[in-house]
Amino acid sequence: MGSGSQALTAPRSGPLRGVRIVEFAGAGPGPMAAMLLADLGATVLRIERRESVELGLKRPRKYDLLLRNRDSIALDLKDARAVAVALQLVGKADALIEGFRPGVMERIGLGPTTCLKHNPRLVYGRVTGWGQSGPLAHTAGHDIGYIAITGVLHAIGRRGAPPTVPLNVVGDYAGGGLYLVMGILAGLLEARSSGEGQVVDAAIVDGTASLATTFFGMQAAGMLNAQRGSNLTDSGSHFYDVYQCADGEWISVGPIETRFYTLLLKTLDIEPSELGEQLDAASWPRAKAILSAKFRTRTRDEWARLFADSDACVAPVLRWDEAPQHPHLAERGTFMTIDGVTQPAPAPRFSRTPPHIPYPPASPGSANALAEWSAPEEIAAWRAAGVVVAD
Fold first, then answer.
1. Does the structural domain 250-316 have CATH classification 3.40.50.300?
2. pTM of the prediction?
3. Distance between CA atoms of residues 275 and 265, nearest Å
4. Active site includes 172?
5. Out of 118, 142, 280, 311, which one is annotated catalytic?
6. 252: which strand partners?
């Protein structure tokens, strides 16, 4: 798709068109949730702070992609007048997103009791690492700690090596942002029938644990080896792992099913008897050595071409800059370029109400940020009083 340089007032489309959400600026899972909802057509207004506050890793705003697709204003929430403005905006919203420590929103006068009294149908979305209750609720933390106490971090890594620290996709964005979106959407659906809003407590520890449900079941059934890197899909087996190629690049292999595994060995010209029984863990180390030697005989791209369109479940391990050029992703439009920045396109896809092309991240005071929320004279009064930074 093309550039997203069109005006922020361009018509919105998508299954959530008409839904209004107020987002209080934070970092990580909150902006992720807001982006996903905005990508699907919701009108999201981001309220940022007037004072300079460190929120995540600093970069030029055009590269802070989680801020795309919504307008923003700046308020000093230590000022009672600004809090009153925020409350007016919340009164016109269907949902709210905040990611502060428990009690922060209450202290500034925008807690759920106050907001729901002002707007009884509001779905009040809260996302934190530890949740709104529990011994750790008021302590600082980051993704690595949240996934650590759930057991997930312990399970990631190779045999005999320390736990491998993954990107914060598992905790912040999947366990936090995605579960907040699911909670908000469920709350909005329920409010349509009941006429009442509610609070959604999306804790990253809860969401991460939920993502690992399958593995807790396998653990209870005695099907998991407690030693990481020794199970079927955690790099323990030879048929679910990555192998280095002749050029130093990597190829991924994952044919779990027998028919796909047989095809892998046939394409590699390896006799199954050389490797031993596929599910015999005792044979895995030797089988890995044989596959490793084989994959070092060609480059990654040579292997990728050999296995193209094959059911052997082999795929090249691509870098960030390579992924958008992969033929499959290119044909599907999995990535798009907006304001010169290549980034993932909105997902999932809808047959009848496809989302619009996202807008690039906007600074506070973007044109017509409040046009859909308040009357022109009201906006002018707020601006004249210096309470709101917005055009």
1. no
2. 0.93
3. 10
4. yes
5. 142
6. 242, 315
